[in-house]
Amino acid sequence: MNFLEERIQKDGVVKEGNVLKVDSFLNHQMDVKLFDEMGKEFARRFEGCPINKILTIEASGIGIASVVALHFDNAPVVFAKKAKSINLDGEMYTAEVESFTHKNTNHVIVSKKFLSKDDHILIIDDFLANGCALQGLIGIANQAGATVEGIGIAIEKGFQQGGRMIRNLGYKLESLAIIDAMDASTGKITFREQQAAHH
Ligand code: 5GP
């Protein structure tokens, strides 16, 4: 098991409805040293990609993306903001994102000031479930004419459809932990085998 799988095994809580709670180190209280390990591993997995910008979505992606960015040269973090209403003055890229955990739909926006066709983006997020958040971020990158160099996810729930869909679209998607099965009644979590993270 890699460092993140070990932490999920130790502190993650499997809830009904296919939800994994990782509030004690990732989604509420944040273990920034763990984020730093994640950044190191993403830098290794995306080595050689000409990444100049990191794109994420509020709220949970921001902390992780910020620490991950320390492992890339000159790559500011831009986060898609949840907007109550979108003004259509043409200053924003927009996408609709259905929330897996909250079961509602958000408009998310990124100012045209901060993404352009010259950007080579690494998308970062905490979870991948059905892939709605990623589709929204990819849509925003496409509106900007930017290049998506890769996608880095902390925890992918491999039994949901997002991972397969995004890989089928041809994106380089790297998830540090992929959960193939989890059981709320026993708490058992089964990880997909992957190559060990280097330290
Ligand atoms: P998707 O859009 O891929 O269906 O879901 C991704 C988003 O939903 C993530 O950004 C994350 O905030 C949230 N999410 C999805 N599944 C889980 C889960 O099992 N646990 C937690 N804590 N968040 C989740």
Descriptive overview:
With 199 residues, the chain is an alpha/beta fold. It has one domain (3-154, 168-191): 3-Layer(aba) Sandwich (Rossmann fold). It is 29% helix and 33% strand. It has 6 helices and 10 strands. It has helices at residues 3-11, 23-27, 32-45, 60-69, 132-144, 162-168, and strands at 13-15, 19-21, 53-57, 77-83, 92-98, 105-111, 120-128, 147-157, 173-182, 189-191. It has an 8-stranded mixed sheet with strand order 5-6-4-3-7-8-9-10, with helices on both faces. A two-stranded antiparallel sheet has the order 1-2. Helix 3 (32-45) packs across helix 4. The longest helix is centred in the first third of the chain and has 14 residues, at 32-45. The chain is globular. The site of guanosine-5'-monophosphate has 19 residues, from strand 2, strand 7 and helix 5.
Keywords:
two-stranded antiparallel sheet; Rossmann fold; eight-stranded mixed beta sheet; 33% strand; binds guanosine-5'-monophosphate; 199 residues; alpha/beta
